[in-house]
């Protein structure tokens, strides 16, 4: 028994019940653990789907170059497909992404260009603009643009959604996830609501991102409320074409500190060694469930999607110095006159 290539191992990730963190809640809470994908994240699903689509449409030809702006995980997924199919990759990313992500992309043979985070999306230095410009300059190149490419949400409609429906035998009642491009939450929710319109879908956003604001205010908000934050891969400063708010029932938001601390608790209390956006999604999910505990019953099955793996954040969330430096971990208390040491 073997697979023809690593690409055949994408998808069919496990659902794992939370046993400690949600023990006060009346419902079943399950985690969809996406680090079981070969590139260790949910984004392998769209890397494959966008390249398949480009090959079908003749947009990507033998020997071609894939150019994409990525926080790291989509790049990893695209790089796996590029290796299996003989393409080169150039990725643009931002200086806030962990070094481990950049090094992993280079390990797969990709060229990585690091761009500043703190510039407007339309600034020629932004990672969106650099990817777009390179795709115009480099012949035989393909720029998937995961933000707007319909194959992104479609990949989740075709795989993540059906997996959740089958794995819960149609019992899933709530789906909770963070959003970057919005592909995961929009595609998965669209499939689930087609099976059962009563399924509720809740988005989780970091403070500083536009999505929570758009959902609750329809676009009327103060620009000062959009600011850089540390949680990687989720939230946006633009409205991605793959984000479909009409499918969502609620949106909650989480601070960087809550996200980082919950990421550590998932590892310590559930054995789920996952990334920052997983801690963010779970912190938001637990808040939402506690706020709605009166409506939840033992029949409810809530699925929280955990996008990636903890190894990518060893130098950040899982490093005490980094956590203290950002005020996410209280420094050990200084000794005072009243302390008794034995
Ligand atoms: N978490 C991480 C770590 C990611 O890299 C991404 C993708 N940027 C997401 C969550 C969000 O997924 P999506 O783009 O499908 O909304």
TrEMBL record:
Q: Which residues form a coiled coil?
A: none
Q: Which keywords does the record carry?
A: CBS domain, Pyridoxal phosphate
One of this protein's GO BP terms? Answer: cysteine biosynthetic process from serine
Cofactor(s) recorded for this entry are: pyridoxal 5'-phosphate
Gene Ontology MF terms in the entry: transferase activity, transferring alkyl or aryl (other than methyl) groups
* Family (UniProt): Belongs to the cysteine synthase/cystathionine beta-synthase family.
Q: What is this protein called?
A: Cystathionine beta-synthase
Write down the species: Rubricoccus marinus
């Amino acid at each position: 028994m073997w697979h023809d290539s690593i690409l055949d191992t994408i998808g069919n990730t496990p659902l794992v019940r939370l046993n400690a963190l949600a023990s006060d809640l009346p419902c079943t809470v399950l985690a969809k653990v996406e680090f079981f994908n070969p590139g260790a994240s949910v984004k392998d699903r769209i890397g494959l789907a966008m390249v398949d689509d480009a090959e079908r449409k003749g947009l990507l030809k033998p020997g071609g170059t894939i150019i994409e702006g990525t926080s790291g995980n989509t790049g990893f997924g695209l790089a796996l497909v590029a290796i299996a199919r003989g393409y080169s990759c150039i990725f643009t990313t931002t200086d806030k992404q962990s070094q481990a992500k950049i090094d992993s992309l280079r390990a797969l043979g990709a060229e990585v260009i690091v761009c500043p985070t703190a510039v407007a999306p339309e600034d020629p230095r932004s990672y969106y603009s650099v990817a777009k410009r390179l795709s115009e300059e480099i012949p035989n190149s393909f720029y998937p643009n995961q933000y707007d490419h319909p194959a992104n949400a479609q990949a989740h409609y075709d795989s993540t959604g059906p997996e959740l429906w089958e794995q819960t035998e149609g019992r899933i009642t709530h789906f909770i996830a963070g959003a970057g491009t919005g592909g995961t939450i929009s595609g998965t929710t669209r499939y689930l609501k087609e099976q059962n319109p009563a399924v509720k879908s809740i988005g989780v956003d970091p403070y500083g991102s536009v999505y929570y604001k758009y959902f609750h205010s329809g676009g009327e908000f103060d620009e000062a409320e959009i600011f850089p934050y540390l949680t990687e891969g989720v939230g946006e400063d633009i409205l991605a074409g793959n984000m479909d708010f009409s499918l969502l029932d609620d949106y909650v938001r989480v601070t960087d500190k809550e996200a980082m601390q919950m990421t550590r608790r998932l590892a310590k209390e559930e054995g789920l060694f996952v990334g920052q956006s997983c801690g963010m999604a779970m912190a938001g999910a637990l808040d939402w469930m506690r706020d709605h505990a009166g409506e939840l019953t033992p029949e409810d099955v809530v699925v929280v999607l955990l996008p990636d793996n903890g190894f990518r954040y060893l130098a950040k969330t899982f490093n005490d110095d980094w956590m203290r430096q950002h005020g996410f971990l209280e420094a050990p208390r200084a000794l005072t006159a009243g302390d008794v040491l034995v």
